[in-house]
Structure formats: C-alpha cells, structure tokens
Amino acid sequence: MKTKPVQIEGYQGDIALLHSSNTIAFLCSHTSPVGTRERVVQWIQQLPADSVVLCGNLTGIEQMVIKLLAERGIRVVLVLATALENKDYGFPLVITPIAYPEVSKPTARSSAMRNELMISHASNVVVGFMAQNGNLARQLLSIKNYTVLMSGQQMEETRADRLRYNAEQMGWAIYNQLKEGNLPSIEMRKLLVQYLRLEIERPSMLHSMLLYTVLKKYAGYTDFNFTSFFEMWGGVSCFRADDWKGAKTDNGKFRMSLAEKTLGRLMKALPSKFRPIVCADEQFKSPLAHALLDPMLGRKPQNKRYLSWALKLAFFDKDHAAIDKYKSLLGKK
Asked: Is the bond preceding 203 in cis, omega lying within 30 degrees of 0?
C-alpha cells in the first residue's frame, strides 16, 4: 500500500513504529451518516493486537477511534494537520508534514497534506466514510486498494433499515392502542389509516395480530367497511402459514384460524333476506371470499362450516352445478 513517503517535518516519540508490519491509516470525511460509528466500532473490535493505527484527532469519529484503540491497547500514531508544538501529546508517536510553526490551526491544505502523509506511511488504508467527489475521494484516486467501512450504498441501506425499524415501532404502537382500548369508530379508523400508510413488512406477526384485533373488537362497527380494509391490508397474500391453522385451546375447544375468522366476517357482507349486512357501504366480493375458502376446502373438503360457506357463495355466483354439489354434500334438499 505504501506510496512514495511524504516527508515528515516534525515528530515526537518512537519513529520506529512506522516500520511496523501492520500500519493502518484511518481516514474519514468530516461529516458522516448515521451508521458510520457502528461500522467503525466493529472494525476496531476485529483489529489484530499488533496493529499500529495512524489517525488524526480533529473530528468526533477520529476522537472515538483513538479512545477505543487505547482501550484495546492498540498503538496509535497521532498525525497532525498543524505544526508540532513543544508539549507532551501523550502518544507513542506524533508526526506532522507541517514545517512552519505559524500553522497552528488546520486548514484545507494542511489537512490534505496530513492525509497524504498517513497514506504514504501506511501498509493499509481504512476509510470510515468517504463523501462522493470529496477531497478525500480525490486523494485516494491514486491508490489501488483501500477499505471503505461505510459506502454510499451502505448508507442508503442503513437509512432504509432505520426507516423500516421506525415504521415497525409505530406499527406496534398503533396495534397496542387498538388492542388496549375500545376506541370510537372515527379514532379506530384514523389509526388504521396511519398504520396502512407505514412501510410494514407483510406478511408478519404484527400485520396478522393487527388484523386479529380488528376482527375481534371493531369488525362489527356499522360504519366500518371491513371488506375495503381487508383489501388495503393486503388480502390473502399477506397471510402467514400459521394464519391458516386453527388450534385447540387449553379447555379443549377449537379456535378458528385467522383466515377462517376473516372469511366469516367477509361473508357477513353477503346480501341476505334473513339479516341486514353489517355496514351499508360494504360490497360483497365473491373472488375475495373464494381466495380464502377454496384453499380451506382443498385441505378439509368435508368440513361442514366450509361447505355451508361454499353453498352460500354458489347461490351468490348463480353457479347451479356448485349449488347441487354442496347441497348434496350437506345433505340438503
């Protein structure tokens, strides 16, 4: 990695450290995105104990690196972007490319010189984060190999992970509000609108639990169009494998699956002369019901509840062959 060495104009300490077999220059853009610190910490934790790290001490990231390296007992060469002062810096070695005492504060030029000095005396270069088309990126153009801990693509991935995490946290908060209180219809529907706008993983445990809570506590509201909500929830494609399975409770009774509960509520929107539908604005959608019922019948073709639903669907669809089939299976005339 070492290029033609930039001349050291001043040093304090053991200059022989620069001849160690594993010298690493740590560089980082002055501004870095969320996630950079975590990746830098992971890198430090994996460093061999005999490493020698060349690092500045101007930015928060650099100061963190120096602190963590000291905690691990890894030697640090402090590289200045100013002239060397007559004082004890507290490092095994301090070097600078600046010869003029009047350069007492870092400048863009002196910082670039510092970076060049670090690069030229290191066996490897590690970059915490590098802004595209920035000064650091231009300085590294002449180097074939270096390691970037946080790239632009990783930055976008980290941002996406953070947004997903925040959305999931908000989703759980909405679910808890719906579960813990018997909310008025308007408040319930506002919360559901907020939830449906979130980029929540689907299918997921949270997504299923929210639907279960809606079915248990709010699906009977006369101004709540459950069919429209279920379509916005994602429909059949958002069920997990477990959502199709019923189970026995502790007292030996059978508990319907989430898919069965959902279909049962959708069937309440089916026009009937014997009872009014739950919500006047709700329109029964036969394909949506079939998407739930057909897999159930495929697994349990003799289930009486499924056959009863199938017969009702057959009447709605005016499918005479299906009507005769399900009447026969149910033993009805």
From this structure: yes
Mean pLDDT of all residues in 9-18: 95
Beta strands in the chain (DSSP E): 10-13, 23-27, 52-55, 75-79, 93-96, 124-129, 147-150, 247-248, 254-255
Count other C-beta atoms under 10 Å from residue 230's C-beta: 22
Give the containing element (helix H, strand E) for 194.
Answer: helix 185-197
- In the block, tokens 């429909």 appear at 235
DSSP reduced 3-state for 95: strand
**Residue 124, exposed/middle/buried by CB under 10 A (0-12, 13-18, 19+)?**
middle
* Closest among 40, 25, 28 to 135, alpha carbons compared: 28
Closest alpha carbon to 120 in 83, 77, 73, 183: 77
CB 117 within 8 A of CB 8: yes
Report the CATH number of the 10-150 domain: 3.40.50.450
Q: Is the pLDDT reported for residue 56 higher than 90? A: yes
Nearest by Cα to 58 from 84, 39, 30, 33: 30
CA atoms lying within 13 Å on the CB side of residue 279: 20
Q: What is the pLDDT of residues 258-302, one digit of tens each?
A: 999 999 999 999 988 777 889 989 999 999 999 999 999 999 999
Other beta carbons within 10 angstroms of residue 99's beta carbon come to: 12
Residue range(s) of every CATH 3.40.50.450 domain in the chain: 10-150
CB 282 within 8 A of CB 228: yes
- Looking at residue 91, its amino acid is F
Side-chain half-sphere exposure of 301, counting CA atoms within 13 A: 5
Sole residue written with tokens 């976008």: 156
- Token couple for 84: 């060397």
146 and 127 in contact (C-beta within 8 Å)?
Answer: yes
* CA–CA distance, 187 with 224 (Å, rounded to integer): 12
Other C-beta atoms lying within 10 Å of the C-beta of residue 96: 23
Q: What is the pLDDT of residue 175?
A: 95
When pLDDT is averaged across residues 94-103 and rounded to a whole number, the result is 93
